[in-house]
Amino acid sequence: MVGKDCVAIASDLRLGSQSLGVSNNFEKVFNFGHVFLGLTGLASDVTTLSETFRFKTNMYKMREDRLIEPETFANLVSSTLYEKRFGPYFVGPIVAGINSKTEKPFICGFDLIGCIDFAKDFIVAGTASDQLYGMCESVYEPNLEPEDLFETISQALLNAADRDALSGWGAVVYVITKDKIVKRYLKSRQD
Amino acid sequence: MDIVLGIQVEDSVIIATSKAFTRGISVLKTTDDKTRVLNDHNLMAFTGESGDTVQFAELMQANIQLHGMREQVDLRPKAIASFVRGQLAKSLRSRKPFQVNVLLAGFDETTNLPNLSMIDYLGTRVDLPYAAHGYAAFYTMSLLDHHYRSNMSVDDGLRILKMCSKELSTRMPIDFKGLYVKVVDANGIREVDFE
Amino acid sequence: MAGLSFENYQRNQFLAAKGHGVPKATSTGTTIVGCKFKGGVVIAADTRATSGPIVADKNCEKLHRLSPKIWCAGAGTAADTEMVTALISSNLELHSMSTSRAPRVVTALTMLKQHLFKYQGHIGAYLIVAGVDPTGSHLFSVQAHGSTDIGFYQSLGSGSLAAMAVLESNWHEDLDKEGAMKLCSDAIQAGIWNDLGSGSNVDLCVMEVGKDAVLYRNHLTPNVREQKASSYKFARGTTAILKEDIFKLIDVEEETIHSEAMEVDA
């Protein structure tokens, strides 16, 4: 979600195989410098892709002698996914960050073959995406301060996850401003 | 319907695997060891398609031992988990993937910490305090959820394992012929008497 | 793009057979149109992207630039229209640099159809290609399998029937620029209102002989969201927090200090 000079990215912490919950500590949000990537979908591909992007952003950092910016990273994600057009990774990625040069907030989402969905307001993905669309569409408002954005994104996530049997088991929220990142673990239902 | 269980306690990891080797409706062997020693402080337990399991476990064993010999440094638990996961994820993209699920029990001599990783044939890896593959998970997870404490001793761990074993023998539809139990700690890997 | 990797194809078939659901790609269940007028050509598109019955993007861009004066509207699998367009655009630029000539619409069309034919329809891009070049103004369409059409007016996508109804009844030979713009936006609106796969706004692009192409992003916005009746802002402290970590981003400055000369052993 985008706020006033800030962005937030959040995810639940469940890893399960069908109905059986396996872990309540499976983080799906990764950071590459000041760019954040959320990955939902097949857990194996989530790990594989997070490792691929760690490799690619590290190579970028060495070649360019600077960190990758959100817009650039979004195109890296897109081309990496489209490379596997006819044998895709089963993921639903979202990118969030603040451009360190322009200080503009940036978020976007992708489908599994890398079509970018640029949005001004919010992006959702995962098994609870239908519920999240509903929550965000009603609860979101533009230009929220970081603290208010935290409440809005947390409530959107928590309430959407409560209407999805496969989501929940803890949640984590990152609120990103240009010089500070706050990571919070939320208290959530455990059923 | 093999049983593979792992419990991480304060300074070690306990691994339990069923002794029965079954094919179809027959139990072919009652002394089957579903584990392989990867190096001095790392043990792998496995289940899955028969044939694939031992092939895969011994492939990992050979590669990890080769690394130890070449580099004169043994791979640490997290490195082994990362390597094994990578191999399974790669295998999944091949013509005939290994259908093997594993538990990795290890003790890191550098940090002096035990480690338990669960990896399935899709390449899903999680590091957990206690873990089980297959149907055994459905019967044992509730017991472990209830009784597990992170600062338990090996004996405490074995006591919970006893409860799990009892539950499994009463609820599982076939006799799994008991469990082999192994402990991985600072001193290496040892088998313990369990019955 | 050094060729597409089929690495995961077999794995996914295996996964699908094992009963794992296959995720859906975004498609631009779309209305796109194009129409010629004397001295130029107009193309237009709606701005809705869907994934199944869900509206994935309410204001996406379906008008792509192949070269400064050749534009194209895309329908079908969103990622495919995006990527095939970017690829051809880049090859067109290289081609025009090596030939020292402005790129032609037929060249773009040929490159597109040969690429799409090679992939036997698996790249799901349905495009309306239009533009002006030294030989005049042109309007074409390409299907995913590689077949192409020429015409004074074209429509493609799930809303193409609604749009074509408007084009067929209102198009005439001596249309001027304003008339063509009106006809195209009317045709898109037919899609927006009558086709479920299309919606939101009208994007438009006008290409005139001897002039720069002009993109009218959100030319019409007949579906502006109403101001919300009340705010759902939550009071600070509503959400219970278990743990908080704060990371401060700091600038690290590196300074290289040059000494007189490097010391070397004799």
UniProtKB/TrEMBL annotation, chain A:
Compartment(s) where it occurs, according to its Swiss-Prot or TrEMBL record: Nucleus
Regions annotated as coiled coil: none
Family matches, as InterPro entries: Ntn_hydrolases_N, Proteasome_beta_3, Proteasome_sua/b, Proteasome_suB-type
UniProt GO MF annotations: endopeptidase activator activity
Pfam families for this protein: Proteasome (PF00227)
Keywords for this protein: Cytoplasm, Nucleus, Proteasome
Statement: the UniProt record of this protein carries the keyword DNA-binding: no
Alphabetical GO biological process terms: proteasomal ubiquitin-independent protein catabolic process; proteasome-mediated ubiquitin-dependent protein catabolic process
Entry GO CC: cytoplasm; nucleus; proteasome core complex, beta-subunit complex
Record SUPFAM superfamilies: N-terminal nucleophile aminohydrolases (Ntn hydrolases)
Known partners and oligomeric status: The 26S proteasome consists of a 20S proteasome core and two 19S regulatory subunits. The 20S proteasome core is composed of 28 subunits that are arranged in four stacked rings, resulting in a barrel-shaped structure. The two end rings are each formed by seven alpha subunits, and the two central rings are each formed by seven beta subunits. The catalytic chamber with the active sites is on the inside of the barrel.
Protein name as annotated: Uncharacterized protein
Organism listed in the record: Kuraishia capsulata CBS 1993
UniProtKB/TrEMBL annotation, chain B:
Signal peptide annotation: none
Keywords: Cytoplasm, Nucleus, Proteasome
CDD domains tied to this protein: proteasome_beta_type_2 (cd03758)
Subcellular location, record wording: Cytoplasm; Nucleus
Role noted for this protein: Component of the proteasome, a multicatalytic proteinase complex which is characterized by its ability to cleave peptides with Arg, Phe, Tyr, Leu, and Glu adjacent to the leaving group at neutral or slightly basic pH. The proteasome has an ATP-dependent proteolytic activity.
Quaternary structure (record): Component of the proteasome complex. The 26S proteasome consists of a 20S proteasome core and two 19S regulatory subunits. The 20S proteasome core is composed of 28 subunits that are arranged in four stacked rings, resulting in a barrel-shaped structure. The two end rings are each formed by seven alpha subunits, and the two central rings are each formed by seven beta subunits. The catalytic chamber with the active sites is on the inside of the barrel.
Family assignment from sequence similarity: Belongs to the peptidase T1B family.
Protein name, as recorded: Proteasome subunit beta
Taxonomic source organism: Kuraishia capsulata CBS 1993
Automatic annotation (TrEMBL), chain C:
GO molecular function, one term: threonine-type endopeptidase activity
UniProt KW Hydrolase keyword: yes
SUPFAM superfamilies, alphabetized: N-terminal nucleophile aminohydrolases (Ntn hydrolases) (SSF56235)
Keyword Cytoplasm included in the entry's annotation: yes
Keywords: Cytoplasm, Hydrolase, Nucleus, Protease, Proteasome, Threonine protease
Catalytic activity: Cleavage of peptide bonds with very broad specificity
Gene3D superfamilies: Glutamine Phosphoribosylpyrophosphate, subunit 1, domain 1
Cellular compartments annotated: Nucleus
Top-level taxonomic group: Eukaryota
Residues of the signal peptide: none
Record-linked InterPro entries: Ntn_hydrolases_N, Pept_T1A_subB, Proteasome_bsu_C, Proteasome_sua/b, Proteasome_suB-type
Catalytic residues as annotated in Swiss-Prot or TrEMBL: 30 (nucleophile)
Domain Proteasome beta subunit C-terminal: 222-257
Gene Ontology biological process terms in this record: proteasomal ubiquitin-independent protein catabolic process; proteasome-mediated ubiquitin-dependent protein catabolic process
Pfam families noted in UniProt: Pr_beta_C, Proteasome
Subunit record text: The 26S proteasome consists of a 20S proteasome core and two 19S regulatory subunits. The 20S proteasome core is composed of 28 subunits that are arranged in four stacked rings, resulting in a barrel-shaped structure. The two end rings are each formed by seven alpha subunits, and the two central rings are each formed by seven beta subunits. The catalytic chamber with the active sites is on the inside of the barrel.
PANTHER family attached to this UniProt entry: METALLOPROTEASE TLDD, PROTEASOME SUBUNIT BETA TYPE-7
This protein's name: proteasome endopeptidase complex
Organism from which the protein derives: Kuraishia capsulata CBS 1993
